[in-house]
Design goal:
Pfam families: MFS_1. Its main location: membrane. This is MFS transporter. This protein is mostly helical. It has helices spanning about 20-50, 55-60, 60-85, 85-105, 110-135, 140-170, 175-180, 180-195, 210-235, 240-260, 270-275, 275-305, 310-315, 320-335, 340-360, 370-395, 405-440, 445-480, 500. The longest helix has about 40 residues, at about 405-440. It starts with 18 loop residues before the first helix and ends in a 7-residue tail after the last helix. About 55% of the residues are buried.
Length: about 500
């Protein structure tokens, strides 16, 4: 059997001596991808002015990345299974760095949008390769818990880190550095991956590529993400918006039918239909809807209502980051081998819902230390606690040859959840704001004050929805995720035996 690039492990069950070094570079790459989803947001107004991007096309700087990333994730996961995760990981890093350099050097609208699309495409190679490398390299339950604790903290908190970094770079350097900053990240991670990452030879999937599945899934996911991003500014009843949603449903239905029939499917349905993984994908996607909506509202509240600078706004998110790190690495990691995953995920989502509930009390003069900071801490603790077992369970017990596409499904649920959260909750907020202002406009003594009051009312109305979504996430996690504590055997095996393996409880340590 031909070797993958790099040295193979003696067998899939042996512990890789470089696994902890590898985790450093995998985590660095994941941080780069996650923070890129938000770092550009703060720089966008300045970049728009410099490049002459119209207001109508401004949203495409964000949408071009989201469409390419969300649409190509399943394909990227399958490529990782086919090429090998190490090779795919390095190619994704190099491509992401090149696309970032192109974006930073952009001289016009077309160059910027092209660079964002390329970033999304290479991110779709990189993200599933990173998670699946963890899945095949960390096989001991305790070590796996620690590794996924770190990864979960980054996946959950990276977006908030992007707000801090984006604010700092935009205010003190130049918006172009929100792109250039990716280059050293990518170079260090690529060199490190080349030197230390090794991958079990048995983890490769050499089946032929499912071309119909690639086409249908890519078009279906692109249509779904575009439908939600279009609904945000054109309305849910817009003819093209409705048409795109209908096309998405048809394409994804055709994709599922195709996957059930082809010999080597892009996404084996066993990955989705296993109860625990299905519960993870669904609950995680819903939770991300709530979290991404909050990023948007809190950013607007702090900058527009409270007058915070971009840097101050970014640092105002620090309590959430701290909460996520503590929840993931201290609570989730320590309890992962002692209690069933649903006893971490469901309470974690409920704790996050409690933090979100506190933010429904926002008004024009809310205290940062008395309300916003403790709410963020609670939200971060809850999400960090829930993300850690979710990331681990999403790939636990999967046939190693399917780990890339199983990892891609985690990223897909997050990406689609983020697109839905931004569009759905922003629409709810805008509608509530309009109704509030219309009902009080006639007797308003200060129109500017009324506008700000209406904006905050819109935010709190949408946050109530986010609370409900997190409660539903908790219910799904508790009802569908039935696996016991993971045992210490390798996190892989035959697809047929995957469900039985992850349900075996062990005595608590």
């Amino acid at each position: 059997m031909p070797k993958t690039s790099g040295t193979s492990l003696p067998d899939s069950g042996s512990a890789d001596p470089n696994r902890w070094k590898a985790l450093v570079f995998i985590a660095l790459a994941q941080l780069m991808v996650v923070l890129d989803a938000t770092i550009v947001n703060i720089a966008l107004p300045t970049a728009q002015q410099d490049l002459g991007i119209s207001d109508g096309n401004r949203q495409w700087v964000i949408t071009a990345y989201a469409l390419a990333f969300g649409g190509l994730l399943l394909f990227g996961g399958r490529i990782a299974d086919l090429w090998g995760r190490r090779r795919t990981f390095i190619v994704g890093l190099i491509g992401f760095a090149a696309a970032s350099a192109l974006g930073g050097a952009a001289t016009g609208e077309a160059m910027m949008l092209g660079a964002r699309g390329l970033q999304g495409a290479f991110g779709a190679l990189l993200a599933p390769a990173a998670l699946s490398l963890l899945a095949v390299m960390f096989t001991d339950a305790k070590e796996r818990a620690k590794a996924f604790g770190i990864y979960g903290a980054i996946a959950g908190g990276g977006g908030a880190v992007g707000l801090i970094l984006g604010g700092f770079l935009t205010e003190y350097l130049n918006w172009r550095w929100t792109f250039y900053v990716n280059i050293p990240f990518a170079i260090v991670a690529a060199v490190g991956a080349y030197l230390v990452i090794r991958e079990p030879e048995s983890a490769r999937n050499r089946s032929s590529l499912d071309i119909p599945g690639v086409v249908l899934s890519t078009l279906g996911l692109v249509a779904l993400v575009y439908g939600f991003t279009r609904a945000e500014h054109s309305g849910w009843t817009d003819g093209l918006t409705v048409g795109v949603f209908v096309a998405s449903v048809v394409l994804l239905a055709a994709f599922v039918i195709t996957e059930a029939k082809v010999k080597a499917p892009l996404l084996p349905l066993r990955v989705l239909t296993e109860r625990n993984r299905g519960g993870v994908y669904l609950s995680l996607g819903l939770a991300v809807i709530a979290m991404f909506g909050l990023f948007l509202f809190l950013t607007f509240y702090l900058q527009i209502v409270r007058g915070y600078s971009p840097v101050k706004t970014g640092f105002a998110f620090m309590p959430m980051i701290v909460g996520m790190i503590v929840g993931s690495t201290q609570i989730g990691t320590r309890l992962m081998t002692r209690v069933p995953p649903r006893m971490l995920m469901a309470p974690g989502f409920l704790a996050a819902a409690a933090g979100m509930l506190m933010l429904t009390q926002l008004d024009l003069n809310s205290s940062y230390t008395g309300l916003i900071m403790p709410a963020q801490l609670l939200l971060g603790l809850g999400m960090g606690t829930a993300f850690m077992p979710a990331m681990s369970l999403a790939t636990y017990g999967v046939d190693p040859a399917d780990s890339g596409v199983a990892s891609a499904m985690v990223n897909t649920s997050q990406q689609v959840g983020g697109a839905i959260g931004t569009a759905l909750l922003n629409t709810i907020a805008a509608s509530a704001t309009t109704s509030y202002i219309s009902a009080r406009a006639a007797g308003a003594a200060d129109p500017k004050l009324l506008e700000l009051q209406g904006m905050v009312h819109g935010f709190t109305s949408a946050i109530w929805w986010a609370v409900g979504i997190l409660v539903i996430s908790a219910g799904i996690a508790f009802a569908l995720i039935t696996s016991g504590r993971p045992d210490t055997r390798p996190a892989g095996g035959s697809a047929d035996g995957a469900e039985d393996e992850i349900r075996i409880p062990v005595v608590a340590h």
